[in-house]
Amino acid sequence: MSFQTGHIGLNVTDLDKSKEFYQRVFGFTVAGESQQDERRYAFLAQDGTLVLTLWQQSAGRFAAALPGLHHLSFQVADLAAVREAEAVIKEIGATLHHDGVVPHGEGASSGGLFFEDPDGIRLEIYAPDGAGDRPAPTSGAPTCGFF
C-alpha cells in the first residue's frame, strides 16, 4: 500500500479573507464553494487538482503550542518562484519570519520562506536548491522548527 497527500483542509475565521490570501500568494483557483451561513467553505485548486480546502468554522488564532499542524509546506521549481511569492507576501503585509529567503540549515542548498496566513497558520514555500549562499537563521536544527 502506498500513500500520497491528497489535499489539506484548514479551519479559518474569515473565508473571504483566507480565500483571497491563498489565491494571491499561491495562485490557487476556486474549484467550488458554499456561501451558506452555517456551512461556508472553499475548495482551492491548482491546474485542476484540489490542493486546499478552507472551512470557516473557527475563532481566534492558530495555536502553535497545541497538538496539531506544525506548518504547511509547498515546494516550487526554483528560487525565482520563491522570490515571486516573497514579493506578494511583502506586498500584502503578511507576517514573514527570518526576514525572507533562508536555507533550511547550515550548508543546505534548499530553502525558502516561512510566513503566516491571516489566521496565523504557519506556511513555507521552498525550492530544492539555490538558497545555500545565504546564512541559515539557526544551526543544528531545521529552520522550519524555529518559527
From TrEMBL:
Protein keywords: Metal-binding
One GO molecular-function entry: metal ion binding
Renumbered residue ranges of the record's region Disordered: 128-147
UniProt feature coiled coil, ranges: none
A Pfam entry, by short name: Glyoxalase
Top-level taxonomic group: Bacteria
Domain VOC: 4-128
Keyword Transmembrane helix appears in the UniProt entry: no
InterPro entries: Fosfomycin_Res_Enzymes, Glyas_Bleomycin-R_OHBP_Dase, Glyas_Fos-R_dOase_dom, Glyoxalase_1_CS, VOC_core
PANTHER family the record matches: GLYOXALASE_BLEOMYCIN RESISTANCE PROTEIN_DIOXYGENASE (PTHR36113:SF1), LYASE, PUTATIVE-RELATED-RELATED (PTHR36113)
Protein name listed in UniProt: VOC family protein
